[in-house]
Amino acid sequence: MPTVRVGEIELDYERSGTGPPLLAIMGMSGTALHWVEPFLRPLRQDFEVIVYDHRGVGASSPLQGPTSIVELAQDAARLLDALAIDSAHVLGISMGGMIAQELALAHPERVRTLTLGCTYCGGEGSSLTSPQVLQRLTEAMMSGDQMRALRAAFEANISPAAAAEGQLYREFLAIAAQRTVAVPVIMAQMQACVVHDTSARLSQLAMPTLVIHGTADEMLPVENGRVVASRIPGSQLEILDGIGHLFFWEQPERSAELIRAHAAVHA
User: Fold this and answer.
1) pTM of the model
2) How far apart are CA 137 and CA 118, in angstroms?
3) Residue 88 and which of 20, 26, 128, 210 are 20 to 30 A apart at CA?
4) What domains can be seen in the chain, in order of their start residue?
Protein backbone atom coordinates (compact mmCIF):
# COMPACT_ATOMS: atom_id res chain seq x y z
CA MET A 1 0.00 0.00 0.00
CA PRO A 2 1.34 3.48 -0.83
CA THR A 3 1.62 6.19 1.81
CA VAL A 4 0.55 9.82 1.60
CA ARG A 5 1.39 12.86 3.71
CA VAL A 6 -1.56 13.81 5.93
CA GLY A 7 -0.73 16.86 8.03
CA GLU A 8 2.28 15.96 10.17
CA ILE A 9 2.00 12.21 9.62
CA GLU A 10 1.76 9.68 6.81
CA LEU A 11 -1.04 7.16 6.29
CA ASP A 12 -0.91 4.06 4.13
CA TYR A 13 -3.95 3.57 1.96
CA GLU A 14 -5.34 1.71 -1.02
CA ARG A 15 -7.82 2.75 -3.75
CA SER A 16 -9.70 0.17 -5.81
CA GLY A 17 -12.91 -0.09 -7.79
CA THR A 18 -14.84 2.29 -10.03
CA GLY A 19 -17.39 4.95 -9.15
CA PRO A 20 -17.83 7.67 -6.57
CA PRO A 21 -15.43 7.46 -3.62
CA LEU A 22 -16.29 5.40 -0.54
CA LEU A 23 -14.03 6.04 2.46
CA ALA A 24 -13.97 3.01 4.77
CA ILE A 25 -12.80 3.72 8.35
CA MET A 26 -11.67 0.70 10.35
CA GLY A 27 -12.24 0.04 14.04
CA MET A 28 -10.09 -0.51 17.11
CA SER A 29 -7.17 -2.93 16.65
CA GLY A 30 -8.16 -3.35 13.01
CA THR A 31 -6.15 -2.85 9.84
CA ALA A 32 -6.99 -2.18 6.21
CA LEU A 33 -6.71 -5.92 5.64
CA HIS A 34 -9.73 -6.53 7.85
CA TRP A 35 -11.93 -5.13 5.06
CA VAL A 36 -12.09 -8.65 3.68
CA GLU A 37 -12.43 -9.44 -0.02
CA PRO A 38 -15.92 -10.98 0.10
CA PHE A 39 -17.14 -7.60 1.41
CA LEU A 40 -14.99 -5.32 -0.75
CA ARG A 41 -15.56 -7.15 -4.03
CA PRO A 42 -19.24 -6.16 -4.48
CA LEU A 43 -18.56 -2.64 -3.21
CA ARG A 44 -15.97 -2.12 -5.95
CA GLN A 45 -18.70 -2.55 -8.54
CA ASP A 46 -20.26 0.78 -7.50
CA PHE A 47 -17.50 2.69 -5.70
CA GLU A 48 -13.88 3.60 -5.73
CA VAL A 49 -13.18 2.13 -2.29
CA ILE A 50 -10.53 3.81 -0.15
CA VAL A 51 -9.18 1.88 2.83
CA TYR A 52 -6.34 2.96 5.10
CA ASP A 53 -4.50 2.24 8.34
CA HIS A 54 -4.78 4.56 11.31
CA ARG A 55 -1.68 6.19 12.80
CA GLY A 56 0.29 3.52 14.64
CA VAL A 57 -0.93 0.75 12.31
CA GLY A 58 0.77 -0.87 9.34
CA ALA A 59 3.06 1.46 7.37
CA SER A 60 1.30 4.58 8.71
CA SER A 61 3.32 6.83 11.01
CA PRO A 62 3.90 5.57 14.55
CA LEU A 63 1.50 6.68 17.25
CA GLN A 64 3.18 9.17 19.56
CA GLY A 65 1.42 9.16 22.93
CA PRO A 66 -2.37 9.22 23.33
CA THR A 67 -4.86 9.90 20.56
CA SER A 68 -8.53 10.87 20.34
CA ILE A 69 -11.49 10.18 18.11
CA VAL A 70 -11.42 13.84 17.03
CA GLU A 71 -7.76 13.56 16.04
CA LEU A 72 -8.43 10.38 14.06
CA ALA A 73 -11.34 12.14 12.32
CA GLN A 74 -8.96 14.94 11.36
CA ASP A 75 -6.67 12.30 9.86
CA ALA A 76 -9.60 11.03 7.76
CA ALA A 77 -10.47 14.53 6.53
CA ARG A 78 -6.84 15.22 5.67
CA LEU A 79 -6.62 11.93 3.80
CA LEU A 80 -9.49 13.10 1.59
CA ASP A 81 -7.59 16.37 1.08
CA ALA A 82 -4.40 14.54 0.16
CA LEU A 83 -6.26 12.38 -2.37
CA ALA A 84 -8.03 15.45 -3.84
CA ILE A 85 -11.48 14.14 -2.92
CA ASP A 86 -14.03 16.87 -2.19
CA SER A 87 -16.69 14.53 -0.80
CA ALA A 88 -17.23 10.81 -0.35
CA HIS A 89 -19.63 8.20 0.87
CA VAL A 90 -18.34 7.32 4.35
CA LEU A 91 -18.46 3.95 6.08
CA GLY A 92 -17.21 3.52 9.64
CA ILE A 93 -17.36 0.44 11.84
CA SER A 94 -16.89 0.26 15.62
CA MET A 95 -14.23 2.86 16.53
CA GLY A 96 -14.29 3.78 12.85
CA GLY A 97 -17.98 4.58 13.25
CA MET A 98 -17.10 6.96 16.08
CA ILE A 99 -14.51 8.57 13.82
CA ALA A 100 -17.09 8.80 11.02
CA GLN A 101 -19.50 10.57 13.39
CA GLU A 102 -16.90 13.22 14.24
CA LEU A 103 -15.92 13.55 10.58
CA ALA A 104 -19.55 14.09 9.55
CA LEU A 105 -20.13 16.62 12.34
CA ALA A 106 -16.99 18.62 11.55
CA HIS A 107 -17.26 18.41 7.74
CA PRO A 108 -20.86 17.60 6.76
CA GLU A 109 -20.33 18.93 3.24
CA ARG A 110 -17.76 16.22 2.63
CA VAL A 111 -20.02 13.28 3.51
CA ARG A 112 -22.43 12.25 0.74
CA THR A 113 -23.95 9.40 2.72
CA LEU A 114 -23.00 7.97 6.09
CA THR A 115 -23.01 4.31 7.13
CA LEU A 116 -22.34 3.56 10.81
CA GLY A 117 -21.78 -0.09 11.65
CA CYS A 118 -21.58 -1.74 15.09
CA THR A 119 -20.70 1.56 16.75
CA TYR A 120 -21.40 3.79 19.76
CA CYS A 121 -22.18 7.44 20.44
CA GLY A 122 -22.05 7.72 24.25
CA GLY A 123 -24.73 9.31 26.37
CA GLU A 124 -27.86 7.83 27.93
CA GLY A 125 -28.73 4.33 26.74
CA SER A 126 -25.30 3.61 25.27
CA SER A 127 -22.97 0.93 26.62
CA LEU A 128 -19.40 -0.06 25.91
CA THR A 129 -18.00 -3.59 26.11
CA SER A 130 -19.18 -5.41 29.22
CA PRO A 131 -16.68 -5.81 32.09
CA GLN A 132 -16.74 -9.59 31.62
CA VAL A 133 -15.83 -9.46 27.94
CA LEU A 134 -13.28 -6.71 28.55
CA GLN A 135 -11.62 -8.75 31.31
CA ARG A 136 -11.42 -11.78 29.06
CA LEU A 137 -9.84 -9.75 26.26
CA THR A 138 -7.41 -7.91 28.54
CA GLU A 139 -6.23 -11.06 30.28
CA ALA A 140 -5.65 -12.76 26.95
CA MET A 141 -3.86 -9.73 25.48
CA MET A 142 -1.60 -9.30 28.52
CA SER A 143 -0.85 -13.03 28.86
CA GLY A 144 1.98 -12.90 26.36
CA ASP A 145 0.37 -15.80 24.51
CA GLN A 146 -0.37 -14.42 21.05
CA MET A 147 -2.59 -17.33 20.00
CA ARG A 148 -4.69 -16.96 23.15
CA ALA A 149 -5.06 -13.22 22.49
CA LEU A 150 -6.05 -13.79 18.88
CA ARG A 151 -8.59 -16.45 19.75
CA ALA A 152 -10.16 -14.26 22.44
CA ALA A 153 -10.37 -11.31 20.04
CA PHE A 154 -11.89 -13.47 17.32
CA GLU A 155 -14.55 -14.94 19.61
CA ALA A 156 -15.51 -11.49 20.93
CA ASN A 157 -15.95 -10.11 17.42
CA ILE A 158 -17.88 -12.96 15.82
CA SER A 159 -21.15 -14.65 16.77
CA PRO A 160 -20.85 -18.11 18.38
CA ALA A 161 -22.26 -19.73 15.26
CA ALA A 162 -19.69 -18.06 13.00
CA ALA A 163 -16.85 -18.68 15.47
CA ALA A 164 -17.46 -22.40 15.11
CA GLU A 165 -16.54 -22.20 11.42
CA GLY A 166 -12.83 -22.73 10.89
CA GLN A 167 -12.51 -20.73 7.68
CA LEU A 168 -13.16 -17.34 9.28
CA TYR A 169 -10.66 -18.04 12.05
CA ARG A 170 -8.00 -19.06 9.54
CA GLU A 171 -8.55 -15.79 7.70
CA PHE A 172 -8.35 -13.88 10.99
CA LEU A 173 -5.00 -15.55 11.78
CA ALA A 174 -3.67 -14.90 8.28
CA ILE A 175 -4.38 -11.17 8.62
CA ALA A 176 -2.69 -11.07 12.02
CA ALA A 177 0.36 -12.75 10.53
CA GLN A 178 0.59 -10.09 7.83
CA ARG A 179 -0.14 -7.00 9.91
CA THR A 180 -0.29 -6.88 13.69
CA VAL A 181 -1.31 -3.92 15.85
CA ALA A 182 0.88 -3.23 18.88
CA VAL A 183 -0.74 -3.51 22.31
CA PRO A 184 0.09 0.14 23.26
CA VAL A 185 -1.71 1.31 20.10
CA ILE A 186 -4.76 -0.80 20.94
CA MET A 187 -4.80 0.57 24.49
CA ALA A 188 -4.56 4.16 23.20
CA GLN A 189 -7.44 3.51 20.80
CA MET A 190 -9.47 1.99 23.63
CA GLN A 191 -8.96 5.07 25.79
CA ALA A 192 -10.09 7.26 22.88
CA CYS A 193 -13.28 5.19 22.56
CA VAL A 194 -14.06 5.36 26.28
CA VAL A 195 -14.31 9.18 26.27
CA HIS A 196 -16.09 9.46 22.91
CA ASP A 197 -19.49 11.17 23.17
CA THR A 198 -21.40 12.63 20.23
CA SER A 199 -24.83 11.84 21.66
CA ALA A 200 -25.93 15.46 22.10
CA ARG A 201 -24.69 16.47 18.63
CA LEU A 202 -25.93 13.72 16.33
CA SER A 203 -29.20 15.57 15.77
CA GLN A 204 -27.14 18.05 13.70
CA LEU A 205 -26.48 15.43 11.02
CA ALA A 206 -28.58 15.91 7.92
CA MET A 207 -26.90 13.57 5.42
CA PRO A 208 -28.60 10.24 4.60
CA THR A 209 -27.49 7.80 7.30
CA LEU A 210 -27.66 4.02 7.58
CA VAL A 211 -27.00 2.30 10.92
CA ILE A 212 -26.17 -1.44 10.94
CA HIS A 213 -25.83 -3.59 14.06
CA GLY A 214 -25.92 -7.30 14.90
CA THR A 215 -27.93 -8.69 17.80
CA ALA A 216 -25.06 -10.98 18.88
CA ASP A 217 -22.50 -8.14 19.15
CA GLU A 218 -20.40 -8.64 22.31
CA MET A 219 -18.07 -5.70 21.73
CA LEU A 220 -20.75 -3.01 21.48
CA PRO A 221 -24.23 -4.37 22.30
CA VAL A 222 -27.03 -3.91 19.78
CA GLU A 223 -28.74 -1.27 21.95
CA ASN A 224 -26.03 1.11 20.75
CA GLY A 225 -27.24 0.84 17.18
CA ARG A 226 -30.76 1.72 18.23
CA VAL A 227 -29.51 4.69 20.25
CA VAL A 228 -27.37 6.02 17.40
CA ALA A 229 -30.24 5.70 14.90
CA SER A 230 -32.69 7.38 17.27
CA ARG A 231 -30.45 10.43 17.55
CA ILE A 232 -29.90 10.99 13.81
CA PRO A 233 -32.97 12.47 12.07
CA GLY A 234 -34.29 10.31 9.24
CA SER A 235 -31.70 7.57 9.66
CA GLN A 236 -32.33 3.98 8.58
CA LEU A 237 -31.66 1.19 11.09
CA GLU A 238 -30.80 -2.33 9.94
CA ILE A 239 -30.66 -4.98 12.68
CA LEU A 240 -28.94 -8.26 11.74
CA ASP A 241 -30.36 -11.10 13.81
CA GLY A 242 -27.81 -13.46 15.37
CA ILE A 243 -24.82 -11.61 13.87
CA GLY A 244 -21.76 -10.47 15.82
CA HIS A 245 -19.59 -7.36 15.83
CA LEU A 246 -17.84 -8.00 12.52
CA PHE A 247 -21.14 -8.23 10.66
CA PHE A 248 -19.45 -7.70 7.30
CA TRP A 249 -17.36 -10.85 7.90
CA GLU A 250 -20.40 -12.95 8.68
CA GLN A 251 -22.70 -11.51 6.00
CA PRO A 252 -20.38 -9.79 3.49
CA GLU A 253 -22.70 -9.82 0.47
CA ARG A 254 -25.76 -8.64 2.40
CA SER A 255 -23.72 -5.94 4.16
CA ALA A 256 -22.28 -4.66 0.88
CA GLU A 257 -25.73 -4.64 -0.71
CA LEU A 258 -27.15 -2.56 2.16
CA ILE A 259 -24.44 0.06 1.58
CA ARG A 260 -24.83 -0.01 -2.21
CA ALA A 261 -28.60 0.39 -1.96
CA HIS A 262 -28.28 3.19 0.60
CA ALA A 263 -25.97 5.16 -1.68
CA ALA A 264 -28.09 4.47 -4.77
CA VAL A 265 -31.30 5.74 -3.18
CA HIS A 266 -29.60 8.98 -2.21
CA ALA A 267 -27.47 9.43 -5.34
Assistant:
1) 0.96
2) 18
3) 128
4) 3-265 (3.40.50.1820)
What per-residue confidence (pLDDT) applies to 157?
96
Amino acid, single-letter form, for residue 179: R
First to last CA, the chain: 30
Is the CB of residue 69 less than 8 Å from the CB of residue 102? Answer: yes
**What average pLDDT does range 74-81 have in this prediction?**
98
C-alpha to C-alpha distance for 120 and 123, rounded to whole angstroms? 9
Partners of residue 152 on adjacent β-strands: none
Whether 216 shows a pLDDT value over 90: the answer reads yes
- Closest among 61, 95, 218 to 154, alpha carbons compared: 218
CA distances from 112 to 69, 245, 265 (A): 21, 25, 12
Per residue in 96-132, pLDDT (tens digit) is 999 999 999 999 999 999 999 999 999 999 999 999 9
Cβ–Cβ < 8 Å for 105, 205: yes
Residues above pLDDT 90, as percent of the chain? 92
∠ CA 136-138-143, nearest 5°, is 100
Using alpha carbons, list the distances in angstroms from residue 222 to 19, 23, 202, 267: 32, 24, 18, 28
Quote the mean pLDDT of the chain. 96
Q: Check pLDDT > 90 for residue 165.
A: no
Which residue type does 226 have?
R
Residues 256, 261, 209, 237, CA torsion sign: negative
The answer for residues whose C-beta is within 8 angstroms of residue 49's C-beta and 6 or more apart is: 15, 16, 17, 22, 24, 35, 40, 43
Q: How far apart are CA 185 and CA 7, in angstroms?
A: 20
